Amino acid sequence: MSRPLPETRTVPRFDGDAQKLLEIVRRTVVELRPQAAQGLQVTLHSVLDRDLGLDSLARVELWSRIEHAFDVRLPENLFASADTPQDILRVLHSRQGAEVVSPLPSSDSSETLAATGQTPDAARTLIEVLEWHVRHQPQHLHVRLLGEGDQQEEISYGALHQGALAVAAGLQRSGLHTGQTVALMLPTSRDFLHGFFGILLAGGVPVPIYPPLRLSQIEDHLRRQVGILCNAEAKVLITVTQAKLLARLLLPRVPSLSRIASVADLTEEGGECITPPRQADDIAFLQYTSGSTGQPKGVMVSHANLLANLRAMGRTLKVGPQDVFVSWLPMYHDMGLIGAWLGSLYYGYNLVLMSPLAFLARPARWLWAMDRYRGTMSAAPNFAYELCLNKLADDDLEGLDLSSWRLAFNGAEPVSPQTLQRFAERFARYGLASTALKPVYGLAEATLGVSFPPLDRGPLIDRVQREAFQARGNALPAEADTDATLCFVSSGRPLPGHQIRIVDGRGGELPERSEGHLQFSGPSTTRGYYRNPEETRRVLRDGWMDSLDFAYMAGGEVYLTGRAKDLIIRAGRNIYPYDVEAAVGNLPGLRKGCIAVFGSPDPATGTERLVVLAESLEKEAAARQQLQQEVNRIVVDLTGVSPDDVVLAPPHSVLKTSSGKIRRAASRELYERGEVGRPHLAVWRQLLRLVVQAVRAHFGRSWRTCRAALYAAYIWLLFWLVTPLTWLGVAILPRQRWCRSFTRAAARLFLRLAGIPFSVTGLECLPAAGVCVLAANHASYLDGVILSAALPPQFSFVAKRELADQWIAGRFLRKLGACFVERFDLQRSAADTESLAEVLQAGQPLVFFPEGTFTREPGLRTFHMGAFVLAARAGVPLVPVAIGGTRKVLRDGQWFPRHGAIHVNIGPPLLAQGPDWMEAIKLRDATIAVLLEHLDESERAQRAG
């Protein structure tokens, strides 16, 4: 039984006081961190420094606002001791005579959740979604894994969380840092579920990739995975134990890869995991496209994108804990990963999960699982519905009951109107409602779903005039008895909060029933492809993502017509491969679903040749010639033009993606290389070639590693020669200015001897006379050395107080006139701010690193307000200084310097218009803007994210 919720009406001031306090805190945070305003959630339990980024000076401003708003004086010890707004609220209540109301207890009853439809609506990340279920219903069934026969394995939310924590601990022991990528090459299994969330809990970014299906394709498979792993800069590869040895062939070819392990390897050592905080805009995972239309591209799916898409789809489809999703879709595919698993995680409905191979071997298992577990939802590409129609006899389906199936999604590849009609007609006798069939549209760049049809309607088919459509792109309605027609299936309307538009080649929006490029926008839209800014700029502009699909709108619904890169233009006509493939595939003697139609450039004529590549088992020459003539006739009837080449090839010649889609671009490349029909190399020859490539790459990598190690050793030798001499010189010299000049010369000598290209611009921006404050970004331990070499010798550095107590560093910095500030004792930190103001008033210019610290990840961290408040109150100029390149030369967490160029850019002085807090905020924002102009692209991208 769930506990009754306590009444709060007995304390009338609680809601008002709490909301008032939270609004003050939220407003202060937004002023400090405007980039965090979108999606910002401030609760009574938010930690002021860790979650909200409120440093000591920000607390001073916050305290002032709270005391003014509530007309109270807060105790001084609360300044340092308060960790959350709730701590402040308790004191406010004690001063106003109100009693403290405890937070509402949450129910741990899954029955209550199912009855009320509660979902983790306040969650900002996928991690918070899992933690919400662990708090509310840890023992509730989450996933039922189906094995061979009747074997099944049940996984609760609590078990998923515990297994993921064990994986996360292993990854952190392996040296995984926050934001690094981890590839997941696992089949559908408990290990995949634990591994995916283990990566998230460790602070990493999962990269699901598919394991090889057949040994005969091992070379092509590994070649494709190398491209993904290199682009993702994967730190660890998690795979099955049997594949570890084979996967080691990838190590020399993927420089970032430091470990290949199984889930068992990561969990057997024990240990604890410390989950770093993650934000809504952080990348949740990378979804790599199949590569069917080119090189694989990693779609960056943020936590915000993911949750926005799940919530929009859930509202549209009216899903809830009472549903049951049955899925055989692979977990590395967005429809299986997000639509099936993560959707079930968010809404708390049960997921029945089976292997894709189990379905392909026996398609009836899918339908019988829907019957046995009373499945209400499932999804599959069009070929799966065709497989059930063509491979299952009536005897296989005797006694089948599909009456519980209310949502049968058909997506991920072109939807055939004939398939929808035939499937509805055949399975109606088994209780399947025609309204259950849902052709949908989605793609990885939109996280998953883009448009869905209405719940209470079956498939909507649009018949258009073929001539007008192929010649001019006009989808004119055709009469029912007209033969020259094309049929397209409606994919429904855009999700709530999302938009679709159809544009021409110049970007102008087209009217209804005009074919063009489909573009979409909304909170689910990715911000681009990982480490591929060129491709991102090509498809993403002004918030609109080009889907690279052709479509038209009619009655507010979207009709997909083809893939932009697959479109063939021949004799002034637009030819869509899907239509030709479907028509040709019905010919006896050809393997259905194994036909690829594509255009191949003809250098002689400067036009595209229309090629039909079809798999056939026919051996006799006369029969093959007859098949080619039949293909030619069908293509002419359908398109009005004759194919330039009809190639009949043996099985497995037409290349496909892991989800069964035709890889037309790859098949075209095979055709153009003249390799169609050639038998695959024997597995041992493929492995031998891979070993040779791996050895060659290993030697190249070893040489680069050796050269880098020699350079690092030289730098450290140089450091231990120059540093003691510099320290000794500073200790002996009697005057502070001499010490600074000597340090500047030593720093410049070190950079010259180290062979580090070093340049400074903007020295003329430094005020010729008078005091100023310098604010520099902080990326590496080298930053102090670099500024010593770049700046004139009159500046004092502001350093953390811990260094003052060190005999070597403290003595050196004191001789240079450094000022020390406290970082952890908030009261003392505020006092240090006043002492710095006195230093400024005495005419001593100061150098600040407003970030306070640095990490290995690129991008500016949240700026502390000290430098900007001081500059504003003292009325002195603030000079932004951008240091570029030091993070690449010496990153945080490593002591292995690398060769690279360093540049310092000194910006124009900035002056606050007054001494108050808001002017200091403006000064900080102006400083950030100047720094971002001069930082490299990775730093700017990180800040923008």
Word description of this protein:
- The chain has 945 residues and is of the alpha/beta class.
- Among the domains are: 78 residues, Non-ribosomal Peptide Synthetase Peptidyl Carrier Protein, Chain A; 108 residues, Roll (Luciferase, domain 3); 100 residues, ANL, C-terminal domain (GMP Synthetase, Chain A, domain 3, 2-Layer Sandwich), CATH 3.30.300; 234 residues, Glycerol-3-phosphate (1)-acyltransferase, CATH 3.40.1130.
- It has a seven-stranded mixed beta sheet with strand order 29-35-34-30-33-31-32, with helices on both faces. Strands 19, 20, 21, 22 and 23 form a five-stranded antiparallel beta sheet that branches.
- α7 crosses α8, α24 packs across α25 and α28 crosses α30.
- The protein is globular and about 100 Å long.
Characteristic key phrases:
945 residues; alpha/beta; Non-ribosomal Peptide Synthetase Peptidyl Carrier Protein, Chain A; Luciferase, domain 3; GMP Synthetase, Chain A, domain 3; seven-stranded mixed β-sheet; 31 helices; 35 strands
